[in-house]
Amino acid sequence: MKHFVCAVFFDVPTVFTAILVSIAVCAAQAEAISNVRVTSDDVTISQSCRIIIPADTVIEDKNNNGVIQVVASDIEIEFAAGSVLRGSPKNRRPDEYTGFGIRIEGQSNVTVRGAKISGFWAGLWATRTNKLKLEAIDASDNRRAYLRSTPLAEDAADWMFPHNNDGNEWLSNYGAAIYIEDANDITVRNCTVRHGQNALCIDRVNSSTIYDNDFSFNSGWGIAMWRSSRNIITRNACDFCVRGYSHGVYNRGQDSAGILMFEQNNDNIIAENSATHGGDGFFGFAGREALGETASHPAQWHKRRGNNDNLLINNDFSYAPAHGIEMTFSFGNVFYGNRLVGNAICGVWGGYSQDTLIARNHFEGNGEMAYGLERGGVNIEHGIANRIVENTFKNNKCGVHLWWDPEGDFAKKPWAKANGTESKDNFLGGNKFAGDLLAYQFRGPGDVTLGRNTFADVEEKMQKEDAVVVKNAPDSAAPRVKKPGYPVMGTTHPVGARSHLYGRENIIMTSWGPWDHQSPLIRLVRDNGDSIQYSFHKMPSTAKVTVEGQGLKGKLSQSDSSLYTISTTEPGIHPYVMRVKANDFEEEVHGTLSSALWDATFFKWTKDVDPRKDIQAWRELAQGKSAVSAKLSQLAFSYGGAGPSEQKLPHPITAAKLGPDYFGMIAKTQLPLSAGTWEFATLSDDGIRLTVDGKTIIENWTWHGPTPNTATLELPANKTVEITVEHFEIDGYAVLELKISPRR
User: Fold this and answer.
1) How much is the pTM?
2) Alpha carbon of 550 to those of 243, 306, 377, 580, 587: distances in Å?
3) Where are the beta strands (DSSP E) in 488-584?
């Protein structure tokens, strides 16, 4: 109507042009908001649109090329409110999710906004997508591994291995909520990923911005970087990206991290992020190619090769089972103004790092669950020209620990030859130490220069070996520290936002990852072999608990209604299913109880009677003077660096003071098993041999790290079998676990 009225006052060509422009604008607007209804696999998107998915729709990516495939550049895709792209039924296990929700390949300037994607191996996978923008995406509940570690014992099978990704190993082995590769100038902002394994993985992504995201409560990595440089990563929450932790029992981390940086990532800005309660807060490693393990390069190619010249500033890297910051074999990095509190091993681990500036950080209470001398505030092995200045150290096991030790075969690697492995030219000045057990320790050949540091209530200022040259510098020699400038993207302030969860005791693991402290939780708290106890958290009072299985009974504690115990009523192996229902919450817990009585003998052995060379002589030690015996209800020993006498075992064993090294155990029981297939699973460090009725079914009679072994036993009829377990420990870490269960 407006155009028609205008025609009365203007000439016809002008009005006609205006009408054409108006029609074009209206057509463009109509195209921009066109709706696409997605109800099946293989939907291609070639123009800007709004995605509409009916409620409760499940669409499986049956051919692994993406349910939604973006095939055009310069478009915007928006999800309508309430639309969820779901790839698996709700009752499917998260480790059985498959396929990809959205696939983008070879397109540029694509925006995806407001998507909710769950139930896939990877929610969104983008390749060669320059100027990709991901905004307000919720990619929670995508693929994650079932964790075999329990609150009672670690399982080494849960460890991740981030060291390879040139063949997309991260994606193929672990999956991700969002995986972006081979792209420049991308933006990821205001996105959320929880209850997954890896939130955001970027592979060869450069000159990009990642900000205002919440990638917390995942069982692997919050933000993982591979060969990615010149990126700005600010104001993200990557808290509780963790696995391999049980408070007061073990603290391994298993290579999980809030922020991961592997294989030659340079010139990145990591600022004002919160990455607390991660396996590591920040985990950086130069890479296998950088070290010379995967490719052949001229010797000089390895000079100054690593994760270099990155700025980590004003982040919170606290409460890690391992390290607040780990950055190894790298050069020119700056750690400035970060909070590093309550990390189990140390605040900063910088093995073989060079020219690192560690300035004005706050180190407090680090090293409580350390392994050996790697503990406390800053630990650097084989470091050169690192500057540790104007930091605050408070109540750490050790403030600063620098050392050199024999490199072994590493000295032959190209990186070592090109860059050197000394411990020298390091400087400590302007630091404040208060309440630390030891301010600094220096070991092995090397040198260090000390400026003026101050001390208050420190038990001991310095320990040093004779081979270390300590130089005292005048005040004027201290390097002047200027706060680095950096761009800040985003409006959120994640540092301190979860202060109510400070402390490693708030890392509570489930079989699928860390608890988010909001959802109902069923947690294993005690396992005696023939009985098991669970605690319920955030569970509505209307919850109903049932247990299925023969020879079992279950009951709530009369004194604490949040505790539920399942126990056996007869000898044998008893699988069970516990079902808990409360309003919209429903969960099944599967397990197996073993009602058995083991006759176990522990004893010392020496190098003169090596079980690998003379097993009969070793067995005879079980009848010797050092041998002590007891009856046990299960074989589950998470020794760590201790021995049998440090476990919660009967008095004869604890009183024997067997020590952590060179001990053996022989245990026997008789167990009634029903007809069918039975699985025997062991976790051992070191040697293990398991026999059933005299037949060996598991044998790993070697010196090895924590290693799982399994075997099956076919029984044509019900039978009481005799089981013998033999285990020896040489030295170092030790573990022994046995689980027996029916094959489903």
Assistant:
1) 0.83
2) 33, 58, 53, 19, 20
3) 509-510, 513-514, 521-527, 531-537, 544-548, 552-556, 563-568, 572-582
Tokens representing 307 are: 């994760």
pLDDT at residue 557, rounded to an integer: 86
Q: Are residues 292 and 310 in the same domain?
A: yes
Contact call for residues 259 and 280 (beta carbons, < 8 A): no
* Residue ranges making up the domain that contains 281: 221-477
Task: Please check whether residues 264 and 352 belong to one and the same domain.
Answer: yes
What is the signed CA dihedral for 622, 623, 627, 632, rounded to 10 degrees? 70
**Could you tell me if 582 and 688 lie in one domain?**
no
Q: Are 397 and 427 in contact (CB under 8 A)?
A: no
Distance CA 133, CA 139 (A): 15
Element (H, E) at 183: strand 176-184
DSSP state of 162: T
Domain count along the chain: 4
The pLDDT value recorded for residue 744 is 67
- In whole angstroms, give the CA distance from residue 362 to residue 350: 17
Residue 173 tokens read as 């082995």
Q: What is the distance between the alpha carbons of residues 135 and 130, in angstroms, rounded to a whole number?
A: 15
> Which CATH number do you get for residue 542?
2.60.40.10
Query: What is the torsional sign of CA 42, 47, 48, 50?
Result: negative
Pairing of strands 311-313, 334-336: parallel
Predicted local confidence at residue 9, as pLDDT: 33
What residues are paired with 245 via a beta bridge?
251
DSSP-assigned letter for residue 192 = B
Task: Judge contact between 96 and 121, C-beta under 8 A.
Answer: no
Of residues 171, 215, 211, the one with CA closest to residue 193: 215
- Report the mean per-residue pLDDT for the chain: 92
Bridge partner residues of 625 (DSSP): none
Alpha carbon distance 172, 165 (integer Å) = 9
pLDDT at residue 468 greater than cutoff 60: yes
Contacts of residue 541, defined as CB under 8 A and 6 or more positions apart, other chains included, come to none
Mean pLDDT within 306-328: 98
Q: Do 601 and 622 touch, CB atoms closer than 8 A?
A: yes
Mean pLDDT, residues 510-520: 93
Q: Of the candidates 580, 563, 564, which has an alpha carbon nearest to the alpha carbon of residue 520?
A: 580
Task: Please tell me the distance from the alpha carbon of residue 689 to that of residue 666, in angstroms, as a whole number.
Answer: 10
Residues 547 and 608 in one domain: no
Q: How confident is the model at residue 26 (pLDDT cuts 50, 70, 90)?
A: very low
What residues pair up with 563 in beta bridges, in sequence order? 535
* The 362-364 sheet, strands edge to edge: 339-341, 362-364, 392-394, 432-434, 454-456
